[in-house]
Write a structure and sequence with these properties.
The protein has 141 residues and is of the alpha/beta class. It is 22% helix and 33% strand. The longest helix has 13 residues.
C-alpha cells in the first residue's frame, strides 16, 4: 500500500445541510455526478459527504456512534492571521467554535471548530510546515 490518503468521507445527518455549510466556507462541489454523495476537491485528495446511515451500512458497522471518535480533520494555514480568518469564516458559515485560536505548546497557533455534524476541524499555523502554492503540506524530512 502506498503511503497516501485519497479520500476522507464524512457520514452526515443531512447531506444538503452539510454541503451548503462547506459551500458557505467557499468550497466548490466537484462536477462528479453521483446520486446521494457530494465531493469536494481538497488539494491532492478529496472530501466526500455521504449520509451517515448509508456509510455505516456500506462498512457493515453500527451507525449510532456518538461523542469524540478520536479523529480530527485539519486545515493548515500559511499564517497566524489566516487561522483567525478561517475560524471567523467557519463561524459565519454556521460552525461551532470549539476552541478559539491560541498559541500552541508545539510553537504554532491553532483553534478548533465543528461542522454541523460535529466533526472537529483544527485550524493551525505550524512554522515547521511548508504550505505549497497548491495548498499541499510539505513535512520536514
Amino acid at each position: 500500500m502506498e503511503q497516501r490518503i485519497s479520500l476522507v468521507t464524512l457520514g452526515v445527518a443531512d447531506l444538503e445541510r452539510s454541503s451548503r455549510f462547506y459551500e458557505r466556507l467557499g468550497w466548490r462541489r466537484s462536477a462528479v455526478k453521483a446520486e446521494g454523495v457530494v465531493f469536494f476537491q481538497a488539494g491532492g485528495m478529496a472530501l466526500a459527504l455521504y449520509p451517515r446511515l448509508e456509510l455505516a451500512k456500506d462498512a457493515h458497522i453500527a451507525a449510532d456512534g456518538h461523542g469524540f471518535a478520536g479523529v480530527a480533520l485539519a486545515y493548515n494555514a500559511r499564517s497566524r492571521d489566516e487561522v483567525d480568518a478561517v475560524l471567523a469564516d467557519a463561524k459565519a458559515a454556521g460552525a461551532t467554535i470549539l476552541k478559539p485560536a491560541e498559541q500552541a505548546f508545539w510553537g504554532g497557533y491553532s483553534g478548533y471548530f465543528s461542522d454541523p455534524d460535529g466533526f472537529p476541524w483544527e485550524v493551525a499555523w505550524n512554522p515547521s510546515f511548508v504550505i505549497a502554492e497548491d495548498g499541499s503540506v510539505r513535512l520536514p524530512d
